[in-house]
Amino acid sequence: MPDPLARPAFWLRDNCPCAECRDPRSGQKLFQITDLPEELAVAASTGVDGLLEVLWSDGHRSRYPADLLAEPGTPAEQDAGDLRTERGKRLWRAADFAAGIPEAGWEAYLADPAERAAVLRAVQHLGFAVLRGVPAEPGRVLEVAESFGFVRRTNYGDLFDVRVEPDPNNLAFTSAAIAPHTDNPYRDPVPTLQLLHCLENAAEGGDSALVDGFRAADLLRTEAPEDFAVLTRTLVPFVFRDRGTELRADRPLIGTDPLGRIREVRFNNRSIGRLRLPDAELERFYAAYRRFAAITLRPGLQLAFRLEPGDCVVFDNTRLMHARTAFERTGGRHLQGCYADLDGLAATLAVLDRQSDALDRLQELFEGEGAGEYLGEQVTQAEHMLQAAALARQAGACDELVAAALLHDVGHFFDKHSTEVVTGRQLMQGQDNRHSDTGADWLAQWFGPGVTEPVRLHVAAKRYLCTVEPAYRAALSEASEYTLLVQGGPFTAEQAAAFAELPGAADAVAVRRWDDEAKDPAAEVPGFAAYRPLLAALMARA
User: Fold this and answer.
1) Would you say the CATH fold of 358-541 matches that of 86-347?
2) pLDDT tens-digit profile of 174-184?
């Protein structure tokens, strides 16, 4: 690894992770780049506990973990953050879905975070997914949008009805065939997601189709690079107007990022206004426009399907073009739609992935370090916590208390100032590792107070019970009596009274009692995997 001190000084200082430079809760920087001295330089550096410690010329001291100072990486790795471009997508043709399209049942999507993540990942990478079994009731499309983000209100309202209207202000509200297009190209910014929920589809015709606009643009770039270049640099006036609306956005049909990668397609023949360009440029534009339109109509690119009542398709409106066939007006066809945005979906997916990583980490602890001894008892650390959770469930405890019982001793795995596993041996060596606080603080990254506070208070609950219930202390195991003394011994009467007034004290006492009972070497209880859905649901609510 190259010398990290050879990296630019302002970059190194701008990424200082200390609490003086970044807010510990939000991670946001507490200084402006102009606050740093112009002649900023490293005054001294040393390695401390595997970290790089830097003393700066202005007297500030920074400590950097190794992963922060990793090599810059390849150019592809350096620009990996923008998943909106073609680089973050899987481009497709209709034949790629011969085995089936990305879909999930609505109830499973709501109940299982892994299923929800799979659906959102499909929208992010493939551009679409279909939810089956969404109740065919008006307004339900808004619930779908709100399950991963926020509804984008437009001149059509929070939602809109796609059906034959007596006085339509848009051809979508007729029975006519609609060619592949993106919606609202006349908006700045354009709604980046669209949802269509089928309430009724008894008409003859009216089948739906999707086209991967990025694939179509990629084919244009390959087959006619000059035409591709024309469509990336020609500003097209997209216009919509009715009695109460006047919208316009001037954008190219194919939008690219500074590195030339496809990032957006705006394509809607119904909304293109009058281009005012020299004749030669108009000739080049229309030749390129016609070629691109012809590519989108190739049968191999059009994924055709029929929406049935209860189906809701979610798709990327900056990438996919959608279309429909004409239908007979005598049969009922009614879809409800709304708009949302990709940033909300991406944020929800990132949180779901982060939560999944956290659950993986917890499971690793239970199956790895948790297999070690538990404070001199006849059960392992993991067996003890799993027994506590099983007792909580048997008692009919709420989900938060079951989780607290399951995770109450997770702090034994961590030192207060490190993420390295250290186990509870410190406690047995006469040093209070304050595992209740450490565990609660660590768990607070994902869980709310209903889980973290019983964890935080379960040691204090033991000290409390020893004061108010003399028989309780008499029943403690030898190891538990020893740790009681290391942790401060029984409360005074005044301390016990103060504890009893704390919010969550009763929950902490309940966890404590399950904690004391969970030491049976013969008990057979479910493993950690049995609690993942419960923990995931609690994370989603936190």
Assistant:
1) no
2) 878 899 999 99
